[in-house]
Amino acid sequence: MAKIFYSMSGEGRGHAARVRTMTEHLRHEHELVLFAPNEAYDFLAPIYNKPEMKSVEVRRLPGLKFYYTNRRLDLTKSILHGVKFLGQLRRNVRETSEIVRHEKPDLIVSDFEPILPNAGRSCDVPVVSLNHQDFLLAYDLSSLPPSLQRWAWMMSFVVRAHHVDHAETIVSSFFKSPLLPGYSNVVQVGPLLRPDVSQAQPSEGGFILSYLRKATSDQTLELLKLCDRPVKVYGLGKRPAAGPLTFHEIDENRFTEDFIHCDALIGAAGNQSLGEAIHLGKPVLALPESSHHEQMINSHFLKQMGAGTWTSIESFAKSHLTTFLDGITRFRANLASYRGVTNGNSLALAAIRKHLPTAKLA
């Protein structure tokens, strides 16, 4: 049994969902300590910090966070807090290095989080990077519109700032692209799928599933009321029903069941949710925020694959909804070639396991 330290970004649930998938496969063989900031801690701690989960522990870690003003992503505020976080990075790395030296993990895995990998490097512990964001460094993105290519180039500097010398770099993404020169050793894998999703038998239950951020505008909800079938909305908490809209608290089991049996998905364009939708054969109307450029890029590739369509949530209009609903049958047909064959779990696990001490492999 090896000891693995595993850290992640705390923004949104995509990073935590990937980590949970890997944890569920590794926890029966190895001891894991998960270092989780913000939302990721809130999601993972109730699952693993209980007596029956003897091989997994979740600990808090400082992390970057997106900030919103008037229900819109506030880039200025987010960047300012990011600068503050970077100013404290050296201290946080030093404190975490003491933990690494004391507890002596065999391997560090990181999902777009800078503190633990830097601590691992200072202690000569091998580091595996497993995330989506490294596509901004490794992938040929020449198929993107020029404006998104520019944003990808700018964001690549942020990604590079997270980097240390990795024993392995694994990119988990629902789309693939040729690797750039100098990145031929990057391991490309599909989305990391939760067991309930990877083993699911999907069907069409006659309703739309919508996962929205708490900052979603009332105008977006008014437009969703125009859907031609019921819409189950998650992410906004419990509210009274409004026309075809019903609002549900986040419950992982119920949300997963609705995901498996919905007709289509409308909502944010995170890599994890899009990857699961494509695996299940669910058409997607992606609504990225115009200032969330990674999700804008994800949305472009979603459309390129014929798996759905997109518009920024700020410009969402009735015409976009109508076009999507009219195209669901076509999108579903396009998804047939991807359905059930994109699971990246096995390749990702193999890439991690080869860096564990041989004597400690299960």
From TrEMBL:
Reading the lineage from the top rank, the first entry is Bacteria
Q: What Pfam families would the database entry show?
A: Glyco_trans_1_3
Q: What is this protein called?
A: Teichoic acid biosynthesis protein
